[in-house]
Amino acid sequence: MKQINYKGNLYPETEILFSINHLRSMFLTECIMVKDGNILFWEDHYFRLMASMRILRMAIPMYFTPEYLQSQVVKVLESNVFHEGLVLFSFFETNGEVCFWISPSVVHAVPFWDDESCCINILKECKLTPRLLSSLSFHTLPELHLAAKYAREHHWDDVILVNTQNKVVRTLWAHIFLIKADEIYTPRIEEGCEKTVARQKFVEYLRHVEGRIISEREIFPYELQTADEVFLFANLCIRPVHSYRKKTYEAVISKEIFQALHRWIAAGSGFSDGLFSGAKASI
Known about the structure:
Elements: E1 3-6, E2 9-12, H1 20-24, E3 28-35, E4 38-40, H2 42-55, H3 66-79, E5 85-94, E6 97-106, E7 112-113, E8 119-128, H4 142-154, E9 158-163, E10 168-171, E11 175-180, E12 183-187, H5 197-209, E13 213-217, H6 223-226, E14 229-234, E15 237-240, E16 243-244, E17 247-248, H7 252-266, H8 269-272, E18 278-280
Parallel strand pairs: 7-15, 8-9, 8-16, 12-13
Antiparallel strand pairs: 1-2, 1-6, 3-4, 3-5, 4-18, 5-6, 9-10, 11-12, 11-14, 14-15, 16-17
């Protein structure tokens, strides 16, 4: 049975029952990648979590040091014999106390190529507002809840969300990247994107390791019709988009990017050059 770390103690998943106060709390989340028992990008995740809690004016306990919180993640990895995949780290406030909850989430290879058919469309009825809070990651948002229902009703695999200026922001599940000729482009953080560690590292990888031309800029919906390829990226998982409305895409360059990323990580290059620094858990 899955073991959950709640406030420093391990519990079987079925025993974790949150009170109404917890459910009313705002859950700040961080999805942490694990590769061969290594917590990837731990320092980046830690500083993002601290910055996010400060923005939300949470009273951060003094003992929430990098070493302490890292040890709590390692505790979950060891108790679940978890070697590779995603771990969800959540923070919330209840009765003035900042609590955390760490759970193994998804088991898959890192990086991961998801080649299932992916048909997407745009949700225009509900728009994201570009603001400071947009860059943070929450357990759920009304816009994402509505988008998930919209996707189910229309039998789409994912939905593109736009902001109040009708610029592309993200999809329900991932960051979106377009490829046209030799250029890769993705929406700017300022459009309302989550400023995730995985996105930051992936953009750095494309720019500095592969030497590709990548732009973070405004993207308008019509550009989806002229792109050669579109792929979704979340937590080192790449999923090529096969169709958007009547437009269909290939996945040639997307697959090349994934294969190069896979070889690079498998060779240990990401750990040796510091881009994918990790903390080894004793599993």
